[in-house]
Amino acid sequence: MSTLHALRAKQRALTIRATCLTAIRTFFNARGFLEVETPVRVSAPALEPHLDAEPSGTCYLRTSPELHMKQLLCAGYERIYQMGPCFRQAEQGAWHRPEYTMLEWYRTPADYQDILADTRALLVAVSRAVNGEPTVHRNGRAWTLDGDWEVHTVRDLYQRWAGWDPVAAYEADRFDIDWVERIVPVLEAIPTPVIVTDYPAAAAALARRKPGAPEVAERWELFIAGVELANAYSELTDPVEQQARFEACARERQAAGRAVYPIDSAFMAALEAGLPPCGGIALGIDRWVMLLADAQHIDEVNAF
Amino acid sequence: MYSASDLRKGLKIEVDGAPYVITDFQFVKPGKGQALYRCKIKNLITGGTVDKTYRAVEKIDKPNLEERDLIYSYADADQFVFMDSSTYEQIHIGNDILGDQRWFLVEDMEVQMLFFNNQPIEVTLPFFVERTIAETEPGVRGDTATNVQKPAKLDNGYEIQVPLFINEGDRVRIDTRTGKYADRVSKGF
After folding, report:
1. B28, B37, B54, B55: which is closest to A94 by C-alpha?
2. B185 touches A: beta carbon within 8 Å
């Protein structure tokens, strides 16, 4: 009985969630994006230092659909999007679930600035569809989505609030600790959506280096109310650098005693054949619904 | 030792040789970074609160805490004497640990005492205690529905706010966690 009572209490949040999903599809379909579905169960999840994939038989559950979606780009699909479940081991908290829903979209020719323009238009459109206004309300404060968004480089934030420059000399552990202790409180206080951009090349993940400034990567993250909502790249298209990054990451994971996943050979072959210049992004649907519904815990916006 | 994954709200840990309780806890994972555990922790002795961030690989000390059931015996000057009913050991503690709880001690009351490295640091009384009202303005009949309150003094001099219908000599129940009036047990004569 108590489970049914809890489910009934979620009706408002689940309605917001459904409206959000519909508005996202309407947005992308109107702009000529093709909705795709790629495998959830994969043999080679993307190698990242701190993402642990959930094993599934001899395979893994995907941590992101990125590698498959990029193969579609290599095959000539120019605008694609996908919404579906992703899995990350041991991530549990008010803003994390080991199983959650991710929206990813990619387009070519494009870079991370084009993706930013998409993101602004998407958030405004979805917010209007859900709340009737381009605004999200959280803990008694309002964030207007259709005004200016503050943009800060990683270097500026760390120099101002943490007293060092991670672009000049990157220290991974210090970067993370200062991020949660010094930078996030600053982002929380900013009354507009915030773009944090141009990450140190050492924290590039799958982003390309900035032309003319190879010490930074063309990567940005979006924050609203201090909540990390999306991560976007000008995608790395160079197969040699990609191979080197995967191998470096595999060594790092091995040294840390974490599972080392095979390098996805189909993805690497597609990169060799040619990935056109493209931008892409991953946006956490559950968190976006939490912001739209002013929810405090991710469980509030998931039926089960 | 605890692992970072053991951390949760309410867990008691030791930091720099002092006992703390976790009052707020959040799992965070910045960008492509490592899993981190953000905690607000409260010092069990001083009551001071600090923020702490733990990495997934960190080990956290377990404090040497012991909880014992004791009986309150008597007050001796500014000390309060408790007894362990199995060993007859007597434990003296002062206002610094008891605070306002000293007003609610009743002879032979069973309490829980928390020890850190064998030193008493915290006393937990039964949630409710009965006391007699020694002094208050005469009661007003028929005014049981409103939230208006008036000052009263307990038989030991502690001042408390009570509803208007309470009279001198009434037995009342007090919530020891808040120090506030809970309800009336019986009327005085």
Report:
1. B28
2. no
Q: Is the peptide bond before A109 cis (omega within 30 degrees of 0)?
A: yes
Quick one: which of A233, A39, A94 has its CA closest to B27?
A: A94
**B26, B8: one domain:** yes
Q: What is the Cα–Cα distance from A38 to A65, expressed in whole angstroms?
A: 7
State the pLDDT confidence band at A1, using cuts at 50, 70 and 90: low
Q: Is the dihedral of CA A45, A27, A228, A132 positive or negative?
A: negative
pLDDT band for A148, please (50, 70, 90 cuts).
very high
- Interface ipTM: 0.90
pLDDT of residue B31: 84
Helix (H, G, I), strand (E, B) or coil at A292: helix
Separation between Cα atoms, residue A119 and residue B109, nearest integer Å: 64
Q: What is the pTM of this model?
A: 0.86
B45's CB contacts (< 8 A; 6+ apart) are B18, B19, B116, B121
CA A131 to chain centre: 23
Residue type, A71: Q
Does the pLDDT of residue B143 top 70, yes or no? Answer: no
Residue B189 domain flag: no
Q: Are residues B56 and B94 in the same domain?
A: no
Distance in angstroms between the alpha carbons of the first and the last residue of chain B: 58
User: How close B51 gets to chain A, by Cα (Å)?
Assistant: 9
Question: What residues 123-152 of chain B have any CB closer than 8 A to a CB of chain A?
Answer: none
- Flag if B31 and A172 touch (Cβ within 8 Å): no
Dist. CA B182–CA B163, nearest whole Å: 10
* Residue B97 structural domain: 65-124
For domain A3-301, the question of CATH label 3.40.50.1100 is answered with: no
| Cβ–Cβ under 8 Å, residues A184 and A196 | no
CB contact under 8 A, A91 and B29: yes
Kindly list the residues from chain B whose CB atom is less than 8 angstroms away from the CB atom of residue A206.
none
**Residue A2 reports pLDDT greater than 90:** no
* Number of domains, chain B: 3
Provide CB contacts within 8 A for A263, sequence distance 6+.
A44, A47, A243, A246, A247, A250
Residue among B142, B174, B145 at smallest CA distance from B160 = B174
pLDDT for position B60: 96
Length of chain A: 304
Q: Report the phi/psi class of residue A236: left, alpha or beta, with left for phi > 0 and alpha for psi in -120 to 50.
A: beta
HSE-CB for A224 with a 13 A CA cutoff: 28
User: B95 lies in a domain?
Assistant: yes
Tell whether B17 lies on the interface with A, counting CB pairs under 8 A.
Answer: no
Residues of B in contact with A92 (CB under 8 A): 27
Last residue of a domain, one of B104, B124, B144: B124
